[in-house]
Amino acid sequence: MQQLRLTQKLLQKLSPQQILLMKLLQVPSIALDQRIKQEIEENPALEDSTDELNEDSLDAERDEDDHSDEEFDILDYVDADDIPDYKTRSNNYAEEDRRTMPHANGITFYEVLRGQITDAGFNDTQKIIAETIIGNIDDSGYLERDIDAMVDDLAFTLGINVSEEEIEKVLKEIQEFEPAGVGARNLQECLNIQLNRKDTDDPFIHTALKIINRYFDSFTKKHYDKILKKLEISEEALKSSIDEIIKLNPKPGNSLAETTKTNHFIIPDFIIDNEDGELILTLNSRNAPDLKLNNTYKQMLQNYSLSKKRTKKDREALQFVKQKVDSAKWFIDAIKQRQNTLQVCMQTILEFQHEYFLTGDETTLKPMILKDIAEIVHLDISTISRVANSKYVQTQFGTFLLKSLFSESLKNDSGEDVSTKEVKKILSNCVDAENKKKPMTDEQLVAVLREKGYRIARRTVAKYREQQSIPVARLRKEL
User: Fold this and answer.
1) If you classify domain 408-476 with CATH, what class do you get?
2) What are the boundaries of each domain within the chain?
3) What is the pLDDT of residues 119-178, one digit of tens each?
4) Whole-angstrom distance between the N-terminal and C-terminal Cα of the chain?
5) Exposure string (b/e) for 177-189, b if CB count within 10 Å is 16 or more?
């Protein structure tokens, strides 16, 4: 039996303006320009005062909107003195060096490979096979497709029937291309190709080839004792041979691919300067664009408000203009709130980690989680998270991600809370200073940290080590 019930619920909903602010907070300075340009393109009532837009864009933005005519105060939309609505630039916003850096245009890795096909003396069929092989080489220079699969590819897509032996023959030729090692199917083959291009009469090159071809597994696992026993050579000879292997390029494609990749420049969102011991925080100038309402739209609103008789089309036009102006005002306000939120949050972080920003010593970092900053600035944790993510801060010690300053805490022997970043730094220093012939195991690292007053478990040491991309002791071993 169906029943009607009256229930009361409390729901928390974000307004469109709050949603807009949350989205803008997530955007780093480097992407803010594009976001503003997108908003200006979509809303002709908004314009950048440094780049005046064509004020005849109203006709292109017409849409069908049957909303009823609403009462509004024209004074909310039109400034009597016509001063731009958004002039918040001050000396708090660092001027950015807008000079462009020239980039040399270079041919790509794949163009280099294809350019060598002509000189290889291939017949027409072999040229097609070579193109197929090169098309299946990854950015690192490795062939990522099996020979039998390429046989099928050529048969089904191009109607060319070739054997695996024919593809193998062309592949061997490509493996003679530059850069050395290209076209290999695995690391072992890649290193072997490069070594064979050297003077194989050299005793160290000759031994290096034996190591790669016969004892590759022992080499990768750094079981040097096994190799010494099998080859019956001195430790010095083994070291010299391994030095020859280390000189090789494990990713030959990158030697050319890197030169043609787009350079990515980090543009900091915050800049901290040390002026005679006083830390000064500024926001990147990109965070303070000169936005204002379009004068044409403001004039249109004024004209419609003064009109005593409004037709249906007038009311529709008025509603359209009002909607665009409202949207522009919300965006301008959201940009301003974004600035204020960034400034307040970063200033709080600066004060929280004052000693670190003065010295650059990671061991001085205090434990700091999102909740710590949220409680100080009286904002939600999710807001602090949006501020910290994808934002960079420039200091005299370098430029780094803001979120890298946040870390959990643990207690030392004195009962004090210390940052896990401090422990990681000490762990890294221990590894750097260890005897590489006998690197410290995780158990030994635990003992060293305990001597320094940090009581943590072996699994925690292993976790911190892995987070810093420090390999296990066996793989850190050197001759």
Assistant:
1) mainly alpha
2) 16-89+288-377, 109-259, 408-476
3) 888 999 999 999 999 999 998 999 999 999 999 999 988 889 999 999 999 999 999 998
4) 83
5) bebbbbbbeebeb
